[in-house]
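Hello Y.,

Per our agreement to keep a running log of every chain we model this quarter, I'm adding this entry. I've kept the format consistent with earlier entries: sequence first, then predicted structure.
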Amino acid sequence: MNDGMIAYLLKSEVAKLGEEQRQLYRFITELEDALAEQADTVEEFRRLLVLHSPFEQAAYRFNRSFKEVAAMMQQIEAELGDKIEARRERAKWIDYTDRLTGEAGQKDKQVFLFVSE
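Predicted structure for the entry above:
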């Protein structure tokens, strides 16, 4: 399954989380993504994570302990992983690229897929 489809499934499953879980997950992942954008190397990213700890910021923001936030994120990520894997296994891919690009006369690296669960 391609990265785009995994991203779609993740976004879809995150939207189904309970309000507090969804807010916590988005808060932490957005902070982590921002730090990843700032970092030029993996080591620099690790240093930024320690310095700006998204989990500590989430603990303060959501009035929880660091340990509670870490446990909640582990549970959320495990749940998301299980749900995405189950959907991935049920998904059927139908590639319409040849049919659609042939009709439209477009052959410029576009892929047209229909995904059914």
